[in-house]
Automatic annotation (TrEMBL):
Pfam families named in the record: DUF218 (PF02698)
PANTHER family the UniProt entry points to: DUF218 DOMAIN-CONTAINING PROTEIN, INNER MEMBRANE PROTEIN, PROBABLE PERMEASE
Protein name: YdcF family protein
Domain DUF218: 98-243
Keyword entries, A-Z: Membrane, Transmembrane, Transmembrane helix
Domain of life: Bacteria
Native source species: Polluticaenibacter yanchengensis
Transmembrane segments: 12-29, 41-63
Length: 253
């Protein structure tokens, strides 16, 4: 039930969804001039605020952990935990890398540099249709193609979310008695990932990657000109903020 509700919540957390709802309410539900006016003002405010590149970048920079490569490049970890969520399937169930696949490349890099000994790939299918091919199995084959020794790859392909990945890790990492673990995932996803693994008793280090916002000199255009792409991107930060809060309330972190 929690898994299904999370998918519904993701749809409702999109500012674009809010705009569509306001349009429909204004057109078909609100009859009084007062409420039509209020819905129009709300529509304009949401459209302007959530399409502002400066505000989005500021929020993301404050949410994402800092880059950690210089801190860990000379360290050593027994297991690197690679969390899934970086691929997609086409209609024929052929899997492809998505734009968040930097975490895969960084995992290979850390393995090649000797920072991690073993890669633990965790993740099944994030789709409601659980009969589709598992992402972890695809990533295992890709890791081997990129030169990772198959004996150094552990695969868990049943978990549907971060919490389940942390639970499943007990069955895989625990039996190898690993006490030095590095979590590798997107920077936007790292605060929740770190918290849920530490709740399970792991003394984990983190390696955030796939940054969606970095510090740069903002131009007047970024501050004043609306950006439709930014309007779409807010849903991912909303998902993490609400997900973190939900995990906190339910005792998962």
């Amino acid at each position: 039930m929690f898994f299904i509700l999370s998918k519904v919540l993701l749809f409702l957390l999109q500012p674009l969804t809010w705009l569509v709802i306001l349009l429909l309410l204004n057109r078909f539900y609100f009859k009084a001039p007062k409420w039509k006016r209020v819905s129009k003002i709300a529509f304009i405010c949401i459209a302007v605020l959530f399409s502002n590149g400066f505000l989005y970048n500021l929020a993301m920079i404050n949410w994402q952990p800092a880059q950690r490569f210089d801190e860990i490049k000379n360290k050593h970890y027994q297991v690197g935990v690679l969390l899934c969520g970086m691929t997609y399937l086409d209609k024929d169930d052929v899997r492809y890398f998505a734009t968040t696949s930097d975490r895969f490349l960084q995992t290979v890099r850390l393995y090649k540099l000797g920072v991690i000994d073993t890669v633990f790939v965790s993740g099944g299918s994030g789709s409601l249709d659980q009969s589709r091919p598992r992402e972890a199995d695809f990533l295992r084959n890709q890791l081997i193609t990129f030169g990772v020794d198959q004996s150094r790859i552990l695969v868990e392909n049943q978990s549907r979310n971060t919490y389940e990945s942390a639970l499943k890790a007990n069955d895989y990492i625990g039996r190898h008695k690993a006490d030095s673990i590095l979590i590798i995932t997107s920077a936007i996803h790292m605060p929740r990932s770190r918290a849920v693994f530490r709740k399970q008793g792991y003394n984990t280090a983190v390696y955030p990657c796939n940054y969606t916002a970095v510090k740069f000199k903002m131009s007047l255009k970024d501050i004043l000109i609306p950006n439709p792409e930014v309007l779409m991107n807010w849903q991912y930060l909303m998902k993490e903020l609400v997900g973190y809060g939900t995990y906190k309330i339910t005792g998962k972190i």
